[in-house]
Amino acid sequence: MSPRAIDYLTTAFGLLDGSMVQSEIKAAAERERDLATIIDTSRPVRILDLANGRLRPQYQLLQAAGHKVYGIDLANYPAQDLIGQAYILARWLFHWHIPNGRKALPAGGLICGDVGRLPFCDSLFDLITSMSAFEHFQDVPSAVAEMHRVLRTSGLAWVRIHPFTSLSGGHNLSFTEIPITKLPHGVEPWDHLRKRKIPFSVPLNEWRIDQYISAFSNYFEILKHYCAVREGQYLLTTEIKEELANYSPDELTCCTYAILARKID
Q: Cβ(157)–Cβ(134) under 8 Å?
């Protein structure tokens, strides 16, 4: 069975038993902890889920929490093929396992659009959130500038990025588990930074963590930034460290990096 087929089956089981929802709830809880002393999310706030993805997990969780949520992604188009229909079922299964998910949801909206040219008026949102999407943006500065434009004064941005420098940063390995605890047979660690024997299957900007921090610093006050999840520490041998000496061990082992920032005028 191909790695992609295994991924699809693993995702299906995760949707059926609710474990995928629990994983996303855990990420959402991390966001709530970071925001707890800055914004009151116990009351409804206006939120933009930037690049919400075809499954739209955080969009659904935020709606279920009572917020007025808008999602924008180029993937927000009507289902026209079998994969699109499969995602409709996947979203239904995900929604079914959300606590309180079957209640009536507040108004919001899904928009098919470009994150670098947001179709919203200035100073509209209290919070912008994004999960594992920035690494795919081909014009990060434009996306960050647009986030600044559509946030209200002192509005917040909370993003989690899957860095290209991480063990799984090439997005070309089996994603049956993240963080990766065991590489597929025959795959060399950090192949995407070394020999690139395995081709990339999705667009990647190949940005490093300090580039993201610099881009946000141009428009925002960065309140907090940290590595949220690590992987591959056991694979980082002395030989690989020497070969990849241009990258720090922190870069090579961080598979999820979080940035919390506040709009400055």
A: no
What confidence tens digit (pLDDT) does each residue in 147-198 have?
Answer: 999 999 999 999 999 999 999 999 987 655 678 888 888 889 999 999 999 9
Between CA 259 and CA 265 the distance in angstroms is 19
What's the CA gap between 258 and 225, in Å, rounded? Answer: 5
Q: Does 11 score more than 80 pLDDT?
A: no
Among 49, 58, 110, which Cα is nearest to 79's?
110
How do beta strands 68-72 and 220-230 pair?
unpaired
- Exposure of 118 in the CB half-sphere (CA atoms within 13 A): 25
Band (18; pLDDT cuts 50, 70, 90): confident
Q: What is the pTM of this model?
A: 0.92
Identity of the residue numbered 68: K
> Is the CB of residue 170 less than 8 Å from the CB of residue 203?
no
Torsion angle in degrees (nearest 10) through CA of 124, 128, 130, 133: 50
Measured CA to CA, the distance from residue 26 to residue 257 in angstroms comes to 15
Domains, the chain: 3-263 (3.40.50.150)
Residue carrying structure tokens 């299906």: 12
Rounded Cα gap, residues 205 and 227, in angstroms: 19
CB 190 within 8 A of CB 252: yes
Answer yes or no: are the C-beta atoms of 126 and 47 closer than 8 Å. Answer: yes
Asked if residues 171 and 203 have their Cβ atoms less than 8 Å apart, the reply is no
Q: List beta partners, residue 71.
A: 49, 110
